[in-house]
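Everyone, study these two lines:
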Amino acid sequence: MLGIKALTFDTGGTILDWHTGISRPLAKVGVRHGLERDWGAITNDYRASSLKAMINAGAEAPATFNIDDVHRQQLDELITKYGLDAFTVEDRQAIWYAWHQ
């Protein structure tokens, strides 16, 4: 271990409960707008599409591009895909930022 400078661990999904942190705000906003959906399935789709988009961003992405940018882009796509157009800009911001809490 003499040459090791750092140990890093990916704790997303192990320590961080991303799913609940997103599915609850999605459901809360949906209920407020009178929408019934499978919020857990939408959350799973959101996570999968976000990870895929991050991987596909590759070297073409600006140096400042990160997973927050991907989450924001993918949320807009999911809103269209699942007919959630009633979600306001404020709703989207709250959902997008929820996983930081």
User: Anything to note?
Assistant: The mean pLDDT is 89. Residues 39-57 form the longest helix (19 residues). The radius of gyration is 16 Å.
